[in-house]
Design goal:
Distance between the termini: 64 Å
Helix content: 10-25%
Largest sheet: 4 strands, antiparallel
Strand content: 25-35%
Structural class: alpha+beta
Order of helices and strands: HEHEEE
Shape: rod-shaped
């Protein structure tokens, strides 16, 4: 009987000391997604992207360079560098002209 009680107590202690299984983001390493960046001429951008760049939000900005960025997960977007005087701005748009983070 003593062995049974002792084994039960040991089992309960072992179960209580197990990790909860919750991972904290701070403990996870940051693994960047590999991406490929290819230059694109501004005139070769999709019409939806050109339309977004022609909107009031970017009316005074001029395209200085553009790239298509392809990630390992097959996602792709356009990275567009804009200039207005001395100011510069980088905008990421998908093929439909919507902003991408």
């Amino acid at each position: 009987m003593r062995k049974l009680i002792f084994a039960t107590i040991l089992a309960l202690l072992a179960i209580c000391n197990l990790p909860s299984g919750k991972l904290r983001a701070a403990n996870l390493p940051h693994i960047p997604i590999a991406q490929e960046k290819v230059a694109v001429r501004p005139e070769d951008l999709p019409e939806a992207v050109k339309s977004t760049l022609a909107s009031d939000d970017y009316a005074e900005w001029k395209v200085s360079s553009a790239y298509i960025v392809k990630r390992d997960n097959n996602a792709q977007y356009y990275e567009i560098n804009l200039k207005k005087g001395e100011e510069s701005l980088t905008v990421n748009l998908d093929k439909y002209g919507r902003k991408v983070d």
